[in-house]
Amino acid sequence: MAPISTSREQFDEIPTVVGIFSAFGLVFTVSLFAWICCQRKSSKSNKTPPYKFVHVLKGVDIYPENLSSKKKFGADDKSEGKNKPAVPKNSLHLDLEKRDLNGNFPKTNLKVGNPPNLENVTPKLFPEEGKETVTPDSLKSLTSEEKQEKLGTLFFSLEYNFEKKAFVVNIKEARGLPAMDEQSMTSDPYIKMTILPEKKHKVKTRVLRKTLDPAFDETFTFYGIPYTQIQELALHFTILSFDRFSRDDIIGEVLIPLAGIELSDGKMLMNREIIKRNVRKSSGRGELLISLCYQSTTNTLTVVVLKARQLPKSDVSGLSDPYVKVNLYHAKKRISKKKTHVKKCTPNAVFNELFVFDIPCESLEEISVEFLVLDSERGSRNEVIGRLVLGAAAEGTGGEHWKEIRDYPRRQIAKWHVLCDG
Questions:
Q1: Given this model, what pLDDT does residue 134 score?
Q2: In the 3-class helix/strand/coil scheme, how is the chain assigned residue by residue?
Q3: Is 286-419 a domain of CATH 3.30.870.10?
């Protein structure tokens, strides 16, 4: 019986030995894993990354047609000392290929150059009939402020095709345009042209990227215009700079009355200085007749856009084609929008259009109604003629009108309001 008891004791010791070895193995494994992690962390902290992604590069606007290995752009040299003279924005150039591993530009790569002097460039002017001559006395009268407001020169040609009874306009180029983009110090110009006074013929050129001297060379042919009618027409050019994120910037305009211009001898080459667009004064934006009624039983606000009067010309091209957008706001958030039909070529439009909004009585204090009178333009963004806001927080007649509909529910109250700047 003794050997049997000894073997039992040996079997009882086996689990204990296995447990001890397992514990030692677990401790060794954990220690090895911790050591490896520490080694990786230390090596990673001492190693310089081979590259760095630069997600936003300030001052660079990328267009598909301009992607290349090298690109220069204007920037400010903030690292230079205060004793050095200031360098214009468009005179500092950085080479993108000469960045270091971290995406920074070395100081030794800064190239300072003289900016192009657009005023000293003397373009070849086409011969022109009836153009006023500039005398030395008139040049002396120009102030420095007026010189800074030079907006460039537009070059174009006019021709009449007697066989096809067609009026032909060729927009050649523009020179010395101002920079509308403050970061890249350039513009993305294009030109809109309208034949006045009827405004039936409206065309525009393509957009040319990143240039102050765009060469369009685009020809527009207008059929069905008798030669005898040419003298009664006028050409209106609007020079703009494209902006993909907001409304396009207006650089200036050129107005060419065709009276006195003889096209029977063939093509006529012309040029005109681009002038600043005539901006309307707030006192002359016209008036809008609005009728309001609040029904407390149904919690509805009835808005009637009745009439507009004394609306100004949208530009030198003649009468506007007005319509009204109605925006309903709760606090500062727009919750609904409506609009009227377009009324063609009139400064005194009659709309008579009704809109109904569901508004709880307790929300009237935070509700406001915005009226935007716009000029409808085919193929381009519509221009705001004037603006009106009615609400509890509105000033002047807008606040008074709103107070009356709250004090006298179920009563239709109409009032004229003066439009302000959009």
A1: 46
A2: CHHHHHHHHHHHHHHHHHHHHHHHHHHHHHHHHHHHHHHHHHHHHHCCCCCCCCCCCCCCCCCHHHCCCCCCCCCCCCCCCCCCCCCCHHHEECCHHHCCCCCCCCHHHCEECCCCCHHHCCCCCCCCCCCCCCCHHHHHCCCHHHHHCCCCEEEEEEEEECCCCEEEEEEEEEECCCCCECCCCECCEEEEEEEECCCCCEEECCCCCCCCCCEEEEEEEEECCCHHHHHHCEEEEEEEECCCCCCCEEEEEEEEECCCCCCCCCCEEEEEECECCCCCCHHHCCEEEEEEEEECCCCEEEEEEEEEECCCCCECCECCCEEEEEEEEECCEEEEEEECCCCCCCCCCEEEEEEEEECCHHHHHHEEEEEEEEECCCCCCCEEEEEEEEECCCCCHHHHHHHHHHHCCCCCEEEEEECECC
A3: no
